[in-house]
Design goal:
This protein is mostly beta strands. Helices cover 10% and strands 55% of the residues. The chain contains eight helices and 21 strands. The longest helix has 10 residues. It starts with a helix and ends with a strand. The N terminus is likely disordered.
Amino acid sequence: MCLSATAGAQSVSQEQEWGIAAMYRTASIPFYTADDDSTVSTFVPMMFFENEYLYIDGIEGGVFLYDDRDADWRISAITRLRFVDIPKSVQNAFEGDRADVGAQVRYHFDENWRVEVELMTDDEFQFHSNYRLAANYELGDWELEPSFTIRYKDADFNSAYYSFSDVTGEKIGAGIDADLGIKARYHVISNLYLLGETSITRLDSEAYRSQVVEDRYQGELFVGFGFFHDKTKAYKSELTNRPYLRVAHGWATPSNIGDIFKFNAEKDEYNNQLTSLFYGHPLTDELFGFPLDLYLTPGLVHHWSSDVQSSSTEYVVAIKAYYTFNWPTQWRFGVAEGVSYIDNVTYIEGTEMEEKGYTASNLLNYLDFSFDVNVGDLFNQKDWGNMWVGYSLHHRSAIFESASQFGRIKGGSNYNSVYFQYDF
């Protein structure tokens, strides 16, 4: 937390709508498979956030292009993770799930019910559109969100994902499928919630006639838990933590996290390096009544060119927690969880994936571990109380083959970095 002596000169932040969750998804596979491959499962870390400009809602996120709360209309540019439910043994070769992009128009016609219309495409401009009727009900500790969605898929989309035309050569036509589902959230105590979601989808006739499709109906189930704002308390009008900017520079290491924290890290023989800039947006300053500063932290990372790689850009969105203690100056431990997308896989990741026989994934899970000290305390300068210097570990990985959205791989990359952070 920031020194009180500097708080008056800094901007005041309000508590945000936030959340972080761990979900486990299981879905039936509608295609012809071996008997032991009738279902597929994946671990899905999730983040939640919303303000007047943008939102993150689990596997979906967007930017508000028009948001008239009084008129109940909202238009957004959105992206959403779409699971491709095939046996996990072939998910890496298929390069994981897909992140679609598009636009959504939402209209609330009363306090509970809404309609949504979406036009979406994958990275090969294979289109689908969604027409959804949904509701939200709050019943004591329960929050329920039933929905019914009709999805139109063009012929290219249907052929790519329901006949795998690139492999089979089979082309099928456009189609309309239907999905009935419900989400649930249960408030256990304080910031702890239990989460669940289930749905069933009926495939269209074109998809069902595909030579690789066996079942017309497909089911999915999410279960998990998360930490959110305590619904029994009002949102704080003023937080003790402030926005920040963090500049870091890091050096790659082929060592894993365990060896790094044991101070046994090896040096990368090609001296690959990165430079990053992160912004910290305050979410709350406590968890279960314990003083813990939480931030939404998007970041931009430049990986420098070297003898073995060209330069590349990495994009990160994460939620970071800081715990501050005095001994005798202010110190902080920090940990972040999020997602990372890189436009070109770096040498240190690519060689590891090649050695293990994987297809590398541009999208991976992101972790950041940090330890820093307050500059004002360190030099006995109150005017520097909003500055911190420290160490951080910049980590990308795929959660030990447990996540289909990250390509069902094991491994990643680590960078030891030093940073300067400024609270404003």
